[in-house]
Amino acid sequence: MILTKAQYDEIAQCLVSVPPTRQSLRKLKQRFPRYLNGVVKNGAAPVLLELANEVEYAPSLMARIILEKFLQERDGTPPSKSVINSMLRDPSQIPDGVLANQVYQCIVNDCCYGPLVDCIKHAIGHEHEVLLRDLLLEKNLSFLDEDQLRAKGYDKTPDFILQVPVAVEGHIIHWIESKASFGDECSHHAYLHDQFWSYWNRFGPGLVIYWYGFIQELDCNRERGILLKACFPTDIVTLCHSTA
Questions:
Q1: Quick check: 218 and 228 in contact, CB under 8 A?
Q2: What predicted TM-score, i.e. pTM, was given to this entire model?
Q3: DSSP collapsed to 3 states, 105-167
Q4: pLDDT tens digits for range 72-129
Q5: What is each CA distance from 57 to 21, 60, 100, in whole angstroms?
């Protein structure tokens, strides 16, 4: 699905949630005593999950805040980000069994954030890379994948480099990047800065496929060498001037 910016903004307005400010985060941390009182009464009850739902906050993010507060009070110093992330991925590492159960309940009931959602996103991304590989093979296009490129010493690479460039809608394509997501302004500009322009600088012009669509106005760098599509192109032209 390709949306105009106006259409996207209208949808986003209905779904938007205000990001937490420092003041609101302080208020959330102030609920730590309430969490303690709740688990003392019934440690098996989903106290932390219910608290997150009450304040309309992502359960896994609430779990992170409470876990950070717990470790800080226990150790006297703020825990490192790596320690927090490790415990969220595997709550059995949390030194308090009741808190471990509370964190686990938050993670498995969060459909937007957290390590479980990250695993799902990674799996979906891999599925679409496999789909893209199959489509390239079906079109008899010769390519090198990310693993092959890294074996050759490249540190930052697109998903596929075409060994023989093709043309799509009149634009030469040397590489293809698969994104199993919707291309909004924030994510696309970050990808441009962190990935796409680096690929363009090293390998030349390329194609980005946002399998779940993108904002139409973001496809504004075609003449500079980055083409956006919402599906695998059907009008690929090879060097022999035939449609692949």
A1: yes
A2: 0.80
A3: HHHHCCCCCCHHHHHHHHHHHHHHHHHHHHHHHHCCCCEEEHHHHHHCCCCCCCCEEEEEEEE
A4: 988 899 999 999 999 999 999 999 999 999 999 999 999 989 999 999 999 999 999 9
A5: 13, 9, 19
